[in-house]
Specification:
229 residues, Antioxidant, Horf6, Chain A, domain 2, 2 domains, 5-stranded mixed beta sheet, 3-stranded antiparallel beta sheet, 5 helices, 10 strands
Length: 229
């Protein structure tokens, strides 16, 4: 029996697998072309499908919001370049969804008919489909490191509020060296990282900082106004 080549899926904290690709916006060298920027690299199962269409219209409509956060969008499916171009033209000329119409997709959409890139990023999940990429989302930071990964099945469209929230949360955590509690939104209190020793834990509990509230040595929150983010 012929052995199938196993490709390890990339993990959080690792360098994003490098590749060159043809896209609807020209050739790209990933992730080096995006050094210094955050990137959301995402896959969709197929062109000319309804869930994917709703997602691309949403991504395109939100592109200025992501750009304002120093984040670029890069899409991928295992379809060919001409299929991508025809689909995106159809979206612009014919599709209206949730008040969005005449939507032009200006971010690159990767041609991956060989499934090379999809394979490197574990986007092909045999239990779901051998011929289509699942809805994978990779958050890649300005140093080219994978910071978060979200996978959705073929039939479930992504939550774009969550994608933006997660991006802002990671950027805020990096900037202020804090952690984010459940359901954190900009303006909510953040978590002060746990102290590294009993001595510093005691000091933190006793320190009178009006912006910090400690419920116990392991759980302290801090105010972080929205205008500081």
């Amino acid at each position: 029996m012929e052995e199938k080549q196993m490709i390890a899926m990339p993990r959080i904290g690792e360098a994003a697998p490098a590749f060159t690709a043809v896209t609807t916006q020209g050739n790209i060298n990933f992730p080096s072309d995006y050094q210094g920027k955050w990137v959301i690299l995402f896959s969709h199962p197929a062109d000319f499908t309804p869930v994917c269409t709703s997602e691309f219209m949403t991504f395109a409509s939100m592109q200025p919001e992501f750009k304002a956060l120093n984040c670029e969008l890069v899409g991928l499916s295992v379809d060919g370049l001409y299929s991508h171009i025809a689909w995106l033209r159809t979206i612009k000329e014919k599709i209206e969804y949730k008040g969005m119409k005449n939507v032009e997709v200006n971010f690159p959409l990767i041609e991956d008919i060989t499934m090379e890139v999809a394979g490197k990023y574990g986007m092909i999940q045999p239990g779901e489909s051998n011929t289509k990429a699942v809805r994978a989302v990779f958050f890649i930071d300005p140093k080219g490191i994978i910071r978060a990964i979200i996978y959705y099945p073929l039939a479930l469209g992504r939550n774009f509020d969550e994608l933006k929230r997660a991006l802002i949360a990671m950027q805020t955590a990096d900037k202020f060296q804090v952690a984010m509690p459940a359901d954190w939104r900009p303006g909510d209190d953040v978590i002060v990282p746990t102290a590294g020793s009993c001595g510093t834990a005691k000091d933190r509990m006793e320190k009178k900082d009006p912006d910090v509230t400690c419920y116990d040595w392991f759980f302290c929150t801090k105010k972080l106004p929205k205008d500081k983010i």
